[in-house]
Amino acid sequence: MEKAVDFFFELGQLKRVKRSGWWLVGIKDPESVAEHSFRAAAIGYFLAKKEGADADKVMRMCLFNDLHEARLNDLHKVGHRYIDFPAAEKKAFSEQVESLPAELAEGIRGILDELHADNTKDGIVARDADYLECAFQAKEYIDMGYNDAHDWINNIRKNLRTASAKKMLVDLEKTSSNNWWHGLKNAKR
Predict the structure, then answer these.
(1) Is the pLDDT of residue 13 over 70?
(2) In this structure, which topology does domain 2-177 adopt according to CATH?
(3) In degrees rounded to 5, what are phi and psi of residue 177?
(4) Is 111 within 8 Å of 44 (Cβ atoms)?
(5) What is the pLDDT averaged over residues 41-46?
(6) Does position 189 have pLDDT exceeding 90, yes or no?
(7) Percent of the chain at pLDDT above 70?
(8) How many CA atoms lie within 13 A of 43 on its CB side?
(9) Nearest 10 degrees: CA dihedral of 184, 33, 29, 125?
(10) Average pLDDT, stretch 70-91?
């Protein structure tokens, strides 16, 4: 249990690691990796149900996808031009899970290998959920006046593969990120 406790303390670091790509458009205090992973998992659950994928597996893929960033931090795509980040991700992740019980380590390793192989329905849905979460975040920033965040949505559009994710992107683009709470302040229960 001691190694599991260490692992969960390390996961807590993801609450402090900021998503660095947003700094490029002027966001001074972007969301954390943990915040991104949480909403990506929720989106993954929804997409999996819509696409007939394994919702539990997709959520796990989304939750553990950025685990390595607890050690490496988040590196935006401009930085990826200069650093072999995928190799560093693999090394960090391998060290993160090596002291966990074998069954747990292999379970996490297996779902992430499947996600990165990008050739199964579950992996494709999880990847779309990860992209869509970035699109939701971009839309929130656009609605706050950061118009350069449109670039994220345009790039995401090119990468989505499932029909449900493509439809959701169309809908999110035409919806205000504040729409959900309009009318709730004065609504009677």
Answers:
(1) yes
(2) Hypothetical protein af1432 (1.10.3210)
(3) -70, -10
(4) no
(5) 98
(6) no
(7) 98
(8) 28
(9) -60
(10) 91
Return the domain boundaries, the chain.
2-177
pTM of the model: 0.93
Supply the mean pLDDT for the chain: 94
Contacts of 31 (CB under 8 A, 6+ apart): 18, 19, 22, 137
How far is 147 from 166, CA to CA, in rounded Å? 21
Tracing tokens 């998992």 back to the chain, one arrives at 41
- Side chain identity at residue 61, one-letter code: M
Task: Output 85 or 66, whichever has higher pLDDT.
Answer: 66
